[in-house]
Amino acid sequence: MTQTNPASAIEITGLTKDFALNLRGIKLRAVENLTLNVPEGQVFGLLGPNGSGKSTTIKIILGLLDPTVGECKVFGVPSGRVDSRLNVGYLPEAPYFYRYLSGEELVRFYGRICGVPKKILKDRVREVIDWVGLSGASHRRVGTYSKGMLQRIGLAQALVHDPRLIILDEPTAGVDPVGSAEISELILKLKTQGKTVLITSHLLAQIEDICDRVAILDKGKLIVEGSVNELVGVSNRQSLIVDSLPPAELEELRGWLAARGHALNAVEQPRTRLDQLFLSKVSRPQKGGDIK
Ligand SMILES: Nc1ncnc2c1ncn2[C@@H]1O[C@H](COP(=O)(O)OP(=O)(O)OP(=O)(O)O)[C@@H](O)[C@H]1O
């Protein structure tokens, strides 16, 4: 195995992907000259509007599609090679699971496909199902699971072979805010275990909360890439949160700042975020019960 950059989980260089649309040679450029580095051990958000090339990029990382131009390496191994996938777990955008299998049977099935040794498979399956909070429902048929439970069992199948890189395509699509917050918590736990997570999501507040870095694609091109703190922080301003001031004292403060050459730019009532309000009001489901 040739290891080019040990600090990179994914290295994409000059990647272009064209799809042939018809026999007359009309092509659609889904990804154009993309260069991207996903550092190992970080949560990385791949963002962009519908049709911007996120899923195409993921399929190339997974070796499901070949690049037209450029290259993609996973832990230093070209993504077209089968061994590049040994350390990758994948939760597709709309996973299709065989509905008559129980959660446990499903995860065991994927564990066998991924080569988890037989003697540890049973314990490993229980461990990951417990980890995603589905122990109490592991014998239920997957066809009876709610959307949130399906995403959790999908996460369990992606983790069963203990991969170093986990790719999650829209893991919270259609999941309610409680389920969504729990998936965010699981992603952050994966990070504390040293895993690399590549996630796509249209829930930008969630991405901001959990990602170290993000890349934004538009029409197949990389528009922005960087650390979330650098991208959304405003470096030349500060917020001070104080108890409510009577108008006279507020004017005094404004004058005090003006005398020192500073402006009081905004006086606002702090607001809680709607998702935090929602989470503080609704009950969390019992583990293994009707998890949403
Ligand atoms: N197999 C294919 N054949 C032809 N065109 C395709 C194919 N797969 C994707 N495309 C086109 O490539 C472009 C990028 O699609 P892609 O699915 O990568 O976008 P996306 O960012 O994942 O979108 P979404 O957020 O809707 O999932 C789109 O214009 C899409 O129609």
Structural commentary:
The chain is about 35% helix and about 25% strand. With about 290 residues, the protein is α/β, with parallel strands linked by helices. The protein folds into two domains: about 40-65 and about 80-230, 3-Layer(aba) Sandwich (Rossmann fold); about 245-280, no CATH class. The strands form two sheets. The chain has a six-stranded mixed sheet, with helices on both faces. Strands 2-1-4-5 form a four-stranded antiparallel sheet, covered by helices on one side. The two termini are about 40 Å apart. About 35% of the residues are buried. It binds adenosine-5'-triphosphate. Adenosine-5'-triphosphate binds near residues 19, 28, 30, 48 and 50. Belongs to the ABC transporter superfamily.
Describe this structure in a few short sentences.
This protein has 2 domains: 40-63 and 78-232, P-loop containing nucleotide triphosphate hydrolases (Rossmann fold), CATH 3.40.50.300; 247-282, no CATH class. It is built from 9 helices and 10 strands. The chain has helices at residues 54-61, 103-113, 118-131, 147-159, 177-192, 204-210, 228-232, 247-259, 274-281; strands at residues 8-20, 27-39, 43-47, 69-74, 77-78, 88-91, 165-169, 196-200, 213-218, 221-227.
Beta-strand percent range: 15-25%
Helix coverage percent of residues?
25-40%
Query: How many discrete domains?
Result: 2
Task: Give helix and strand order, one letter per element, not per position.
Answer: EEEHEEEHHHEHEHEEHHH
Dominant shape: globular
Residue-averaged pLDDT: 89
The CATH homologous superfamily of the largest domain is termed P-loop containing nucleotide triphosphate hydrolases
Q: Can you list the ligands bound to this structure?
A: adenosine-5'-triphosphate
**pLDDT under 50 segments (min length 5)?**
288-292
